[in-house]
Specification:
595 residues, mainly alpha, two-stranded antiparallel ribbon, 25 helices, 59% helix, 3',5'-cyclic-nucleotide phosphodiesterase activity, Phosphodiesterase, hydrolase
Length: 595
């Protein structure tokens, strides 16, 4: 049995199952009466290497699962019985492999094998198969433990839950002032082919060990309200409604979306993030976003950017180009990229001489604070989601997060795009991973004009509210108004047209070009493998004149940008007409009447 993630035409992430009949008859499960009579004492159990041990272990695991559902199982009893079940599986493995291996062949330690199986979540066992990790058919057939435990995952039904127009001077001033600066995994050897003597017993026990492990983990996790689960079903869509998630989660979108993403990509299990620590971390991050009660730079914006990053990782295939640690860093950077934002711009901090501007010497003032405050929070034992990273992993993670969040400083915008454009013009461009994910995060940070109109319009009004509040502070401090911050003299429609034409459209275009450059070679390998399996290639546009077409990603933002700009232009025309009429009435230029 083989599972893989495929990209259907609509762009949703689905799990494709390829099932084969097992041709086995499994014994019927024990009755409630049998379970009720079970004694969980571990002192008088049969030896783990006896035939009766598998039956005893399977029966106890069923009972533990039932008691867990009722919340009636002491932790010590649970631990002792799980240890017994683990030893039974190890004994079965040892018994079947010790006589098949020559003296020159090293044997994998049974405890290592067991813990690898036990700790690997079902998500990871049926995760995306990256092109550079694909194995030939013969090698897959020879990797018996992997095959057995992928079959185990099938038994678990819970797995399926698994150009530019002319713009007014004020808009040009705003654009200028804002966007310029005046480890290698160890692989099993192919000759190791352990098989179970009692396949039925081993499979049954293995399923329950895995279920018990995940159930114990889940008991420590926050529960997802049904309304949140319903909203998160659309998480893979480009125009995901984060406002609906905010309402469903009682104002905690970062907490639920952040956890869902880290779990979906397998980061929690891969880097051994304690669930309660993750919940503490996300809750504190959420509180930081709400600290200044900003209309725009708040927890809603953080969740929106994190979801958009998820779309870029998942729906374009970028995740297949990145390592697990790089994906982890990208998701966390998206979550914390505006942590404790003050609702004012870097320029306001510099002009007002704030303590934060003094601390960071007027350079990337807010971005430096977001990073510093987030890592200071991670130093708290109750929020340290990185506690099980090695020293090298931590350094790489921290460097990536710093690079990505600093790249969201809008004053680097034009230089960032210029550098990537220049790189992509080379005959054989080599894109640095840090620069690639930094550009992706930056584009996601400014992507709301590229979303569905109702979402974009709501974001625009929130952002203008925040700008106007800054303008009020500037008036009080005797500072000149920053562009678009004077509530009595701001051209809303024109500003958005300029923002789309000069900032968002070019950014998304360069980002798409970069992704197609990066993912083209990966796509070629998956295309070859999928063609051999009789599948259609994904994300490709072809014409009859070209036997081999260039790899293209789907760009749902193109249509949204076109539609939104059209609406804004219509609004700008109406606003101009209204201003002209008001000016005419104010100046009293209506023609005099004849007597």
């Amino acid at each position: 049995m083989r599972r893989q993630i495929s990209m259907p035409e609509q762009g949703a992430l689905t799990i494709v199952r390829r099932s084969s009949s097992r041709g086995k008859t499994e014994s019927s499960p024990p009755t409630d009466e049998q379970l009720d009579q079970l004694d969980l004492d571990t002192e008088h159990l049969p030896a783990v290497d006896t035939p009766d041990a598998c039956d005893k272990a399977a029966l106890r695991l069923r009972y533990l699962l039932r008691q867990l559902n009722r919340g009636e199982i002491p932790a010590e009893t649970l631990q002792k019985n799980l240890q017994y079940a683990a030893k039974v599986l190890e004994a079965v493995y040892i018994d079947e492999t010790k006589d098949r291996r020559g003296p020159e062949q090293p044997r994998m330690q049974p405890a290592t094998l067991h813990m690898r199986r036990l700790r690997t979540p079902c998500w990871a066992r049926c995760s995306v198969e990256k092109p550079n990790e694909a194995k030939p058919a013969v090698a897959r057939q020879q990797s018996a433990p992997t095959l057995v435990f992928r079959r185990l995952a099938d038994e678990d039904d819970e797995l399926s839950e698994v150009q530019p127009d002319a713009v007014p001077p004020e808009v040009r001033e705003w654009l200028a002032s804002t966007f310029t600066r005046q480890l290698a995994t160890a692989k099993r050897k192919s000759d190791e082919k352990p098989k179970f003597r009692s396949v039925a017993h081993a499979i049954r026990a293995g399923i329950f060990v895995d279920r018990i492990y995940r159930r114990v983990t889940n008991t420590a996790l926050m529960q997802f309200p049904q309304d949140v689960v319903r909203v998160l079903k659309t998480l893979d869509e480009w125009s995901f409604d984060v406002f609906a998630l905010h309402d469903a989660s009682a104002g905690q979108p970062v907490k639920y979306l952040g956890y869902e993403l880290l779990n979906r990509y397998g980061m929690i299990h891969k880097f051994k993030v304690p669930p309660t620590i993750l919940e503490n971390f996300l809750s504190r991050i959420e509180e930081g976003y709400c600290k200044f009660h900003n209309p725009y730079h708040n927890n809603l914006h953080a969740a929106d950017v994190a979801q958009t990053v998820h779309y870029m990782l998942c729906q374009t295939g970028l995740m297949n180009w990145l390592s697990d640690l790089e994906i982890f860093a990208t998701l966390v950077a998206a979550v914390i990229h505006d942590f404790e934002h003050t609702g004012t711009t870097n320029n306001f901090h510099v002009m007002s001489g704030s303590d934060t501007a003094l601390l960071y010497n007027d350079r990337a003032v807010l971005e430096n604070h977001h990073i510093s405050a987030a890592f200071r929070l991670i130093r708290d034992e109750e929020c340290n989601i990185l506690q099980n990273l090695s020293r090298d992993e931590f350094r790489e993670f921290r460097t990536l997060v710093i690079d990505m969040v600093l790249a969201t400083d809008m004053s680097f915008h034009f230089q960032q795009l210029k550098n990537m454009r220049s790189l992509l013009t080379l005959a054989e461009p080599t894109v640095d991973k840090s620069k690639a994910v930094s550009l992706v995060l930056h584009c996601c940070d400014i992507s709301h004009p590229a979303k569905r109109w109702d979402l974009h319009h709501r974001w625009t009004m929130s952002l203008l509210d925040e700008f106007f509040l800054q303008g009020d502070k500037e008036r009080e401090l005797g500072l000149p108004f920053s562009p678009l911050c004077d509530r009595n003299n701001t051209l809303v429609a024109e500003s958005q047209i300029g923002f789309i034409d000069f900032i968002v459209e070019p950014s998304m275009g360069v980002c798409a070009d970069m992704l197609e450059c990066i993912l083209g070679p990966l796509h070629s390998s998956t295309k070859n493998s999928s063609s051999s399996a009789g599948q259609e290639p994904i994300n490709e546009e072809s014409t009859g004149a070209e036997p081999i077409s260039k790899f293209k990603i789907k760009k749902p933002w193109v249509a949204c940008l076109t539609d939104n700009k059209k609406i804004w232009k219509e609004q700008a025309a109406k606003d101009a007409e209204a201003r002209a009429k008001l000016e005419e009435e104010t100046n009293g230029t209506s023609p005099p009447t004849e007597e």
